[in-house]
Design a protein that fits this description.
The longest helix is centred in the N-terminal third of the chain and has 13 residues, at about 35-45. The protein is built from five helices and four strands, in the order αααβαββαβ. The chain has a four-stranded antiparallel sheet with strand order 2-3-1-4. With about 160 residues, the protein is of the alpha+beta class. The chain has two domains: about 5-55, Arc Repressor Mutant, subunit A; about 65-140, Alpha-Beta Plaits, CATH 3.30.70.
């Protein structure tokens, strides 16, 4: 789907505040309500807008421990990769997972209450998957910048 400048403006506004009404979006874009509504529905239907979410502060909500795990698998056949990916999606502690190239097969971002909860995750959940060859954990001491809105400026015409 080719995005025009109106689409990009809508996306930017929604990334900053998904609670804006269609009227507020229309005013900010210089369009009437109907074209804005139709554009939003088209962006949703084409998968550009995947969902509308509230961003939660993990620290204030009790998820004090933030870690990244690099995981190597023992077997790399397609079925083993698919099984690992399907299983890792089911763990609520895993907030993001990436199939990577390099020394490790996957990088997993984990949020837990504390070190005890993290140990439980590693020992009883991740190790229980069976095809795990190696896990290397990195603990975040300070978050400098968290994921935020995508920069769409390079897409403008």
């Amino acid at each position: 789907m080719k995005l025009d400048n109106y689409d990009l403006k809508l996306i930017e506004l929604l990334q900053e505040n998904a609670k804006l009404t269609v009227s507020e979006l229309a005013e900010a874009c210089g369009l009437s309500r109907t074209p804005v509504y139709e554009r939003m529905k088209k962006l949703e239907a084409n998968g550009v807008i995947k969902s509308y979410n509230a961003r939660i502060d993990p620290q204030t909500s009790g998820l004090q421990l933030h870690a990244f795990c690099n995981v190597s698998l023992k077997e790399h056949a397609h079925e083993f990769l698919r099984n690992f990916e399907d299983e890792i999606k089911e763990f609520p502690q895993v907030v993001a997972a990436y199939h990577t190239a390099g020394m490790f097969d996957y990088m997993i971002e984990v949020r837990c209450r504390n070190m005890e909860a993290y140990h439980d995750f590693i020992a009883s959940k991740l190790a229980g998957l069976g095809n795990i060859g190696n896990v290397q954990s990195f603990f975040i001491m300070k978050e400098i910048k968290s994921p935020g809105p995508l920069d769409l400026t390079s897409l403008r015409t």
